[in-house]
Specification:
Structural class: alpha+beta
Oligomer: single chain
Helix content: 10-25%
Radius of gyration: 24 Å
Strand content: 25-35%
Length: 503
């Protein structure tokens, strides 16, 4: 007989193939049969994997086919079984508008339309049959030589394709340079700059990687930010604005414009601990609690006081935080230590080590004009309505709202609700304490909701933000796709048309 110390076996790292190991030990004995029956449910569970659901024509599902579809992203009552696209340890993941990104063992993988937003929006408006024809034609045209691409066809469909592609010499060079990453249908490893790797271990939080509208950014093990994707407004932060940044490029700071003694300069020694991407802007937080912003800023989403242009292609420090006025005088603070950041489509938010939440950007302030329901703030302003006796643990921006997790497990929110046109300016409670399993694994707002994963990974709550107080009582629900999972959930990421689930 053979004695096997089962307590030394970690179920979380065993896979179905490990049944062969048990068969080798026990042979055909009845002991093997009974042991296999008991362990099979554990061995069939994939504890480290990436799954996707939603529309596949963008390539973001990562199945290898643009015809893939799995119901569940749009809250269908009967969701399909999610696609398994990666089986292995995952450090961080994110869902962009039309692509998926995740890191594993120091490497970055992407699938979908990593360098595109304009064409993505146009394709979405087409009938499904014409959209698939257009998608396949665009990929074919991009991956052929220029001489083979140019033909004399004048059909309606080819005319639409030509309008969607909008070819020019510079874009043609870009597609030839990085065509493998431009439209992919399965997880594709990205070539990182020499000597660079993505963060792993405890440093690889969900804030070490982010994906947005044709934009991806990650933090390297050296504590630097690298980004690639669309760059019309300098949203890659590489020092200038042009159509696309085709490969991961390091973030450029304002030392190009400022004296080297200026406090707004991102020092070479500064280590970045968090990043967040909005629609066309980005934020970074250093280990010293300093916050930087770059990209499009016409609605104030950069939070940089006195910004001369509507965008900044370099990272600028957010120094000035607006405090409540006293005796008619506006007060400012430049000594603020930031502990968490987040970015919505055109607004941003942060929490400080003094338990204060700030917000800035589009439609975050009450308007004094009857013609407008709200106005922008180009500098961070304090969010009111939160109980002062509770500690703020997390702040996360959806597309037009912001959610806040407090230490008692209650959730507050402000911004635009799902049912009303006028925003909520003071934070209101949308989930009471006592529901969530604390401490939570994830607290992440997406386009229209916030996903919360409880302590053990078996509680997944999605929370909508309603303006009507009665509807808020029914705002929390468990997504139907959870019926397909027996393993603990690590994180959930919702893009425009797809959802990424990491176990």
């Amino acid at each position: 007989s053979v004695f096997v110390p089962f307590k030394l076996i970690s179920f979380e790292i065993l896979k179905l193939d490990d049944l062969g190991f048990l068969r080798m030990i026990f042979g055909s004995s009845s002991l093997y049969a009974s042991t296999e029956q008991k362990l099979r449910p554990f061995l069939q569970r994939r504890f480290f994997a990436v799954y996707t659901i939603g529309d596949g024509w963008t390539g973001a599902l990562g199945t290898g086919s643009l015809d893939s579809f799995a119901a569940g992203h749009h809250d269908e009552d009967e969701p399909d079984k999610p696609f398994l696209i990666y089986d292995g340890p995952v450090n961080a993941a994110s869902a962009g508008w039309g692509h998926t990104a995740f890191t594993s063992n120091g490497s970055l993988f992407v699938s979908g339309r990593t360098h595109d937003l304009t064409t993505l929006l146009r394709l979405r408006r087409l009938p499904s049959f014409l959209r698939m024809y257009a998608v396949n034609s665009i990929i074919k045209k991009h991956r052929e030589d220029a001489d083979d691409e140019m033909n004399n066809s004048t059909s309606i469909s080819d005319t639409i394709i030509s309008m969607l592609i909008q070819k020019d010499e510079e874009r043609e060079k870009g597609w030839k340079l990085e065509k493998q990453l431009s439209v992919t249908s399965s997880p594709t490893k990205v070539d990182l700059p020499e000597g660079q790797k993505t963060v792993i271990g405890s440093s690889a939080s969900e804030s070490s990687l982010d994906a947005s509208a044709g934009l991806t950014a990650f933090i390297s093990q050296s504590g630097k930010v690298f980004s690639f994707g669309t760059n019309y407004f300098g949203q890659c932060g590489v020092g200038s604005s042009f159509e696309n940044v085709w490969s991961p490029t390091t973030l450029v700071d304002s030392s190009l414009e400022l004296d080297h003694n200026d406090q707004s300069m991102l020092l070479e020694s500064d280590s970045i601990t968090q990043i967040a991407l909005g629609l066309q802007h980005g934020l970074a937080l250093t280990s010293q609690g300093q916050m930087y912003a770059w990209g499009k800023g016409e609605r104030g989403q950069l939070g940089v006081r006195g910004l001369s242009d509507d965008y900044s292609p370099v990272a600028k420090r957010i120094c000035d935080f607006r405090l409540p006025a006293e005796d008619g005088m506006q007060n400012w603070s430049d000594n603020v230590y930031i502990s968490g950041i987040s970015a919505g489509l055109n607004h941003s938010a942060a929490r400080t080590n003094e338990n204060i939440v700030y917000v800035w950007g589009k439609n975050v302030v009450t308007s004094h004009s009857k013609r407008k329901i709200a106005q922008d703030s180009k500098t961070p302003i304090k969010v009111h309505g939160l109980p002062e006796s509770k500690e703020v643990l997390k702040v996360s921006c959806g597309s037009h709202h912001t959610a806040i997790l407090l230490d008692d497990g209650s959730v507050y929110a402000f911004g635009f609700t799902a049912d009303r046109a006028k925003p909520v300016f003071k934070a209101v409670m949308i989930m009471p304490a006592g529901i969530l399993d604390l401490p939570v694994r994830q607290f992440k707002s997406h386009f229209d909701r916030t996903s919360i994963i409880g302590k053990n990974g078996d509680q997944v709550v999605q929370l909508l933000f309603w303006g009507d107080s009665e509807q808020r009582e029914h705002a929390a629900f468990t997504p139907a796709w959870m019926d397909h999972f027996s393993e603990p959930i690590k994180s959930v990421h919702r893009g425009w048309l797809h959802t990424v689930i990491v176990t």
